[in-house]
């Protein structure tokens, strides 16, 4: 009772504003805290709905699982699935299988990775080991190593190679180093494999892919020239 | 629970920097909405019937019940300042009415602004995501579908979040505006009844 009487007294004074707003304010702190808490919940709820609406991101491993199931289905007719790896262009997987890192890295390190072999004709080239090397082709008067030209060939169209199905099923990763001549028209020629980590697995896919690439021809002293390019291509299985 | 939270966090970062201010806008908006909801609930649901309220206001011998309804606030305010002179009482009553009326609309324009701004944040994120996409295209060419997809998904996620914040916000703002109008109407009616009976 006494507090109420006090309030009445204060209220009847001429300085009335405190009465109404004072008690109201004391309560409103609690209201604000509660409202903020509830708002936090609603905000979390709204932003939790976002991933739910989008659905789980398509995982690379999911794709692999789907592919392997497909292979099992195809197995019973024995001779059919065996020649699959050589004809990859027909069945393009919905997603490029070459992992992100490779695609992202390729344009950048291209220039440093082209090995600047000093121009010691014939000797140096024939000294490179490996039977896969074709003899240095007599590609006209203007053929340069990538390190010698003023502007190295730049990729314009670069489709990723298709991961060979068997390698993917068996979980094989690896890399291939290729060397090829980019002509003045930007078309790669004389593609040959320098080294391959698991040999005989990825070479075909790489050669297939590179023959589809197109380049901007190298420039030497203002003229377009043919130039040799050496580049590694990595094959890595899924996982981001 | 924890996994879900991390999922949200990863999506927040996937949408670029835009989603953080958007989340802040959402938080502020809903804090305002809930404050108003509590306010109107107290004001309108626990209200006295108008006849009783008028009787209580004029008969100063009756003790006021506890509570915070709209009529009760007006009556408390009025009774604590009443002078007993008819003309003066009328102007005092009007002043009390005006003070409460100001409280009724407090905060609603802010909620409307926040609700209207959130799709614009989404749009900003869209533009940013498209810029990222074109940067990737300039850098890696159109062959890099993955890199482009990252930018496009950023654009879409921010748009989606902006809309998902805005839609309930606008609905709630409309609802609160209507509540405020209802309260104003009730206040005006009570005020008119009281004014007629003052003498």
UniProtKB/TrEMBL annotation, chain A:
<keyword id="KW-0813">Transport</keyword>
<dbReference type="InterPro" id="IPR003538">
    <property type="entry name" value="TonB"/>
</dbReference>
<feature type="compositionally biased region" description="Basic and acidic residues">
    <location>
        <begin position="74"/>
        <end position="95"/>
    </location>
</feature>
<feature type="domain" description="TonB C-terminal">
    <location>
        <begin position="148"/>
        <end position="240"/>
    </location>
</feature>
<keyword id="KW-0812">Transmembrane</keyword>
<protein>
    <recommendedName>
        <fullName>Protein TonB</fullName>
    </recommendedName>
</protein>
<comment type="subunit">
    <text>Homodimer. Forms a complex with the accessory proteins ExbB and ExbD.</text>
</comment>
<keyword id="KW-0677">Repeat</keyword>
<dbReference type="InterPro" id="IPR051045">
    <property type="entry name" value="TonB-dependent_transducer"/>
</dbReference>
<keyword id="KW-0472">Membrane</keyword>
<dbReference type="InterPro" id="IPR006260">
    <property type="entry name" value="TonB/TolA_C"/>
</dbReference>
<comment type="similarity">
    <text>Belongs to the TonB family.</text>
</comment>
<keyword id="KW-0997">Cell inner membrane</keyword>
<keyword id="KW-1003">Cell membrane</keyword>
<dbReference type="Pfam" id="PF03544">
    <property type="entry name" value="TonB_C"/>
</dbReference>
<keyword id="KW-0653">Protein transport</keyword>
<keyword id="KW-1133">Transmembrane helix</keyword>
<feature type="region of interest" description="Disordered">
    <location>
        <begin position="74"/>
        <end position="100"/>
    </location>
</feature>
<dbReference type="InterPro" id="IPR037682">
    <property type="entry name" value="TonB_C"/>
</dbReference>
<feature type="transmembrane region" description="Helical">
    <location>
        <begin position="29"/>
        <end position="54"/>
    </location>
</feature>
Automatic annotation (TrEMBL), chain B:
<feature type="domain" description="MotA/TolQ/ExbB proton channel">
    <location>
        <begin position="90"/>
        <end position="187"/>
    </location>
</feature>
<keyword id="KW-1003">Cell membrane</keyword>
<dbReference type="Pfam" id="PF01618">
    <property type="entry name" value="MotA_ExbB"/>
</dbReference>
<feature type="transmembrane region" description="Helical">
    <location>
        <begin position="152"/>
        <end position="176"/>
    </location>
</feature>
<keyword id="KW-0813">Transport</keyword>
<dbReference type="InterPro" id="IPR050790">
    <property type="entry name" value="ExbB/TolQ_transport"/>
</dbReference>
<comment type="similarity">
    <text>Belongs to the exbB/tolQ family.</text>
</comment>
<keyword id="KW-1133">Transmembrane helix</keyword>
<feature type="transmembrane region" description="Helical">
    <location>
        <begin position="111"/>
        <end position="132"/>
    </location>
</feature>
<protein>
    <submittedName>
        <fullName>MotA/TolQ/ExbB proton channel family protein</fullName>
    </submittedName>
</protein>
<keyword id="KW-0472">Membrane</keyword>
<feature type="transmembrane region" description="Helical">
    <location>
        <begin position="12"/>
        <end position="34"/>
    </location>
</feature>
<keyword id="KW-0653">Protein transport</keyword>
<dbReference type="InterPro" id="IPR002898">
    <property type="entry name" value="MotA_ExbB_proton_chnl"/>
</dbReference>
<keyword id="KW-0812">Transmembrane</keyword>
